[in-house]
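Protocol step 4 of 6: structure prediction from sequence.
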Amino acid sequence: MLDPKLCETPTLLWTNIIREVADIFLGPRVVIFSIAIFIGLVIICRLRFKNLRKVLTLITFISLLPIILSLVLTSTPAIKFASSQLMKFPSEAVGKSDAIVILGRGELLRESRVKIAANLWRSQQAPKIFASGRGDAQEMEDMLRSIPIPGTAINGEGCSRTTNENAEFTSLILRPQGINKILLITDPPHMLRSLLTFRRYGFEVIAVPSALSPNLGDRNQNLLVLREYFALITYKILGRLA
C-alpha cells in the first residue's frame, strides 16, 4: 500500500521549468520571448554604450537566436533525427517476467498501452499488470477490467507525476512482493529515460514500446521529443539514471 501522503506533494519546480522551456520552442511564445530580450538589451545598452551600431547588431543576433533554435529544433529532419536517437534503447525479446508495468501518458496514448498489456498477459508473459501515473492509472485499470482481465491480476498507483516517481512508487509496491523483472510499456521517445530510471530502482527491465497515436499531431509529437531531451539532461545531472 502506497503512503497517501506521497499523492499530496506539490509538483517539482524543475519539472514545470522543463515543460515551459519546451513549450516556448514550439509555440508563438518564442517570438514574444525574443522581442522581450531585444527590448531589454536595447534599453540596457542605450544607458551604457555610446557606439550602438555594433552593440545593436549583437543584440539582434541574440534576440533572433531563440527563433533560429526553434526553427531548427522543430524542423522535420531535426525531430526525426532526435527521435531516432532517443529510440536507441536496448531491445530484447519479450520473455516471461514477474509483472507488466504500464506508464501513463495521457488519454490519447492510453488505449494502445492497455491493449499491449492485455495481449502480453493473455500470452502468459507475466501474471500481473501494474498501471502507474496520476490521472491515468485508475482509468487504465478500469479498461483492463472491461476487456476483461481479472481484478486479481491488476494493481496500480495513481500518485506519480514524473518518470522518477513512476519508478519510485512502483518499486515501493512491487519490490516487496518479490517482483524484480518487468515488461515496461511506454512510448518510444519516453522509453530510454524510463528504462534507465526503473533500472536505478533495481528492476530488470524489458522494453515494450507502444507507438505514438497519429491523433497527437506533429506539434505534440515534436513536443514529446523535445521534452525528453530536456528531461534526459536533467535526470543525468540529478543522478536519476542507472
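Step 5 (inspection) to follow. The two ends are 26 Å apart (CA to CA).
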